[in-house]
Amino acid sequence: MLGLPTETDEDVLGIADLAARVMHTWRESASNKNRGVRITVSTSWFVPKPHTAFQWEPQISKEEYERRVALLREAIKTKTVTYNWHDSDTSFLEAVLARGDRRMCKVLETAWRKGSKLDAWEEYFSLDRWLEAFEECGLDPHFYANRTRSLDEKMPWDMISSGVTTAYLRRERERKPERPEKPAIPYSLEAAQDNPGAIFLQGLIQHMGVEGQVLAYVEEEGIRLCVDTPTMGVLIGHRGETLDAMQYLTSLAVNRNRKEEGYTRVTLDTEGYREKREETLARLARKIAGQVKASGRPRELEPMNPYERRVLHASLQNNPYVVTHSEGEEPNRRVVISPKPREARKEQRPSKEKQQRLVEEVETVEIIRPAGDASDPTQEQE
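The structure assignment produced for this chain is given below.
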């Protein structure tokens, strides 16, 4: 299912990774590999339903759903995996009807009179007829499908008893996992004052004809600089090449004649581009690793700078199925992702006896430990 609350692109790509793992498991355990195998992946569009903990949540927009479908299609490239996805038009109408009120009665009749019959069959379904019916009745379908509802809003179905109280659904909703947000870097103008890196960078962007303000944050291992500008695309350039060049020049200016003080690391960013780029590279690494694991053949990535290669290596350093290394000379040095030898994978996995022993130890600890004990390792983690 796509479009669940708190879902990220990483979750979507996890579906492709799961398909690759299924393929890999079949190749390792199948007795007759000549027969081949077909794997089918099917996704639907999340529809918030009444009497559930998600009845207050919105359905994501049609454009966002289709973007996630395209993302998953791009990640599933092997011919042995077939990807099917649910039609967006019918799922949108389903979300509208699922949380509609009494005003929907007139829409249903109007759509029926326009010829909306047997709409469960795609050859008879027409979203345009339904949209015309909504327009004639003076209603907006997005009001029902794509709106976040407050917890104290009176729902049209509240008079129906399903055996589950609204208070219980609220508690269940509060239990949904929240994505932990990384703390923002506290850039400031004060830290940029009299800082040689910030002064050099401010002059550099002025010579480039870019309007912006340089902010800074000084930490133990170096200095982080950020350019606050409405034209960040000019500073970033193609895949961050301009930003990397500016960072390199600023680093040269800061570390000139600093042999006695030691090297100062300079990191340049704008509008959170570095973090977004790291997330993109990490997703790319997992995607290619899944393909390598499924195919059993190494893959070469396009040339990258040292910073981006480090991100790729770090993303896959604990992957039990692949290994990474870099080949070539700068500026054409690239990362190669190769399948890990089967012997190495077996060494990395604990044996069945060890897994059972660990389970028994955990169960024993949980039985012996008194409730609320301060030595509870779970409580220490929290």
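Interim note for the steering committee: Confidence is low (pLDDT under 50) at residues 362-382. The first helix runs from residue 9 to 29.
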